[in-house]
Design brief:
350 residues; alpha+beta; T-fold; 2 domains; 27% helix; globular
Length: 350
């Protein structure tokens, strides 16, 4: 298959955070200028912004924690604990850190919740497509069939007592790209809070986590990514306090060949990118690791089943954006989501 016309675009899918300061600190309180730091980790741009005085060290500690998680389970690095488990697939269990074991346990739980539509053993298929890397290509049907046979979360055996992970079938491999970033955001926020931060924003390439409220007591205003723009354009915004906002969309990373775009959200059952009316799903809840996994799970369900599914969950709100630029929201967001881009239409706000 000729690759001369292939264009690979790796765009960081960033939700823009709008911070409103109508009245910063009242009374005799002194205004504190925010401290902000940005690093490239976990295959994306990571930014932490804090609105408390003298918290530079807290930000440094938070980034150290993110780096620690990246070294253990990133799909963008070699020599991780995930690599060790994959190398031992079909042979023997591998002892992993508490961090990795926790994320694997969460990942397997959400794989089960999605009945395999979201599956953390999708590694062989992700590597085959290579979307978001310089090795991206459209595989043959025969190659896809071989890799599909290696995907099954039920073949991941976790030993709670010994903290080991075992992939039963040779050549299986793990991919925590759909959940590890959420865990890193939660851990960064935990470190910041433990070091005295009371007001801040953690933004790991689209995984937004708000620590408490804006310094003036008002909610944070968070922009919802326009899934048809690669560099942070928004379609609207929501107000949140002490919540996380996580978006997954088809234009986050994609491969273009012969005029056709192949996005990075793969369907383990077909072996190809998801074919659906959805362009993006945003989840708003308390913890980023849960939101991260849920966006993929709900993406596979589509709008109707996705809306019904979210209604059965406590403390979860969702925003669905279709390829026709229609927006659907769960009941808890009615009156909250403000559409600012006239190209989009909110369909169920009543």
């Amino acid at each position: 298959m000729g690759m001369r016309n292939v264009t690979i675009r790796k765009n960081v899918f960033i939700v823009i955070v709008f911070i409103i300061f109508m009245s910063f600190f009242t009374g005799c309180k002194k205004t504190v200028e925010p401290v902000e730091k940005t690093e490239y980790m976990l295959g994306t741009i990571c930014t932490i912004k804090v609105y408390d005085a003298d918290k530079e060290e807290a930000i440094t500690k938070a980034f150290t924690r993110i780096k620690n998680i990246e070294d253990k389970m990133s799909v963008n690095k070699d020599g991780t604990e995930l690599d060790a488990v994959g190398d031992a697939s079909g042979k023997n269990p591998v002892k992993v850190s508490d961090d990795t074991f926790y994320v694997l346990k969460k990942g397997r739980y959400y794989s089960e919740q999605a009945n395999g539509a979201f599956d953390i053993t999708v590694g062989p298929l992700v590597k085959l497509w290579g979307i978001g890397t310089d090795k991206a290509r459209v595989p043959s049907k025969e190659e896809i069939e071989v890799k599909k046979s290696l995907i099954n979360y039920k073949d991941l055996i976790l030993d709670e007592q010994n903290k080991t992970a075992f992939l039963k079938i040779p050549e299986m491999s793990l991919d925590l790209g759909g959940i590890a970033k959420g865990y890193a955001a939660d851990e960064a926020a935990r470190i910041l809070k433990e070091n005295g931060v009371q007001h801040g924003i953690v933004n790991l390439g689209g995984n937004i986590l708000a620590i408490n409220s804006n310094p003036d007591g008002s909610p944070w205003r968070v922009g919802i990514q326009n899934p048809f723009e690669a560099r942070g354009g928004v379609l609207g915004s929501v107000e949140i306090t002490n919540k996380t906002v996580v978006t997954s969309g088809i234009y986050e990373r994609y491969l273009e060949q012969n005029g056709k775009k192949y996005h990075h959200i793969l369907n383990p059952f077909t072996g190809y990118p998801m074919e659906d009316s959805l362009a993006s799903v945003t989840i708003i809840t308390d913890t980023s690791i849960d939101a991260d996994a849920m966006t993929k799970n709900i993406f596979y369900k589509g709008i109707d089943k996705g809306l019904e599914y979210v209604k059965t969950l406590k403390g979860i709100e969702a925003i669905f954006v279709t390829k026709d630029k229609e927006v659907y929201i769960t009941d808890g967001l009615k009156g909250n989501l403000k559409i600012s881009n006239s190209e989009f239409t909110l369909k169920n706000n009543k």
